[in-house]
């Protein structure tokens, strides 16, 4: 089974994230987290073979709280994922995929009302003081 899995020569098209399946087939998964029943070394070889010669995909080995990891990053145009982290779980590997979310453009027209309105009301005490001074010092408040 290992030789069949590794013998599959793939070039993943932008927009899909291949997952190594049984008997060497590639599953185009829409999930963000899943497990495969293969060790990290085998899964890493699968992805290195799948993306061989593709300058838009980079590989980084590392460690986190779960153990050994391999991080794949995609800089390809039109890709549906930006990062995939392979976590070593001994006899299996978990894969966490970070999707790229694209939104369509939205045209906004018109003039919205103000978010806040500030209204300052003059107190009756101020009106009394102004009457004592005279009308020529301040406009009449209505």
Architecture overview:
The chain is an alpha+beta fold. The protein is built from 3 helices and 7 strands. It has helices at 2-7, 40-50, 124-133, and strands at 18-20, 26-28, 33-36, 57-64, 67-74, 81-88, 93-99. The strands form 2 sheets. A 5-stranded antiparallel sheet has the order 3-7-6-5-4, covered by helices on one side. A two-stranded antiparallel ribbon has the order 1-2. The longest helix is centred in the first third of the chain and has 11 residues, at 40-50. It is rod-shaped, with a radius of gyration of 32 Å. 12% of the residues are buried.
What does the secondary structure layout of this molecule look like, with pairings?
Layout: H1 2-7, E1 18-20, E2 26-28, E3 33-36, H2 40-50, E4 57-64, E5 67-74, E6 81-88, E7 93-99, H3 124-133
Antiparallel strand pairs: 1-2, 3-7, 4-5, 5-6, 6-7
| Quaternary structure state of the chains depicted | single chain
Element-by-element helix/strand order = HEEEHEEEEH
Strand order of the largest sheet: 3-7-6-5-4
Mean pLDDT: 78
Distance between the first and last residues' Cα: 90 Å
Unreliable segments (pLDDT under 50, ≥5 consecutive)? Answer: 1-13
Radius of gyration (CA) equals 32 Å
**What proportion of the residues form beta strands (DSSP E)?**
25-35%
Instruction: Please work out how many helical segments DSSP would assign.
Output: 3
Largest pleated sheet = 5 strands, antiparallel
What is the 3D form? rod-shaped
**Helix amount, in percent?**
10-25%
**Strands, total number:** 7
Helix/strand-derived category reads alpha+beta
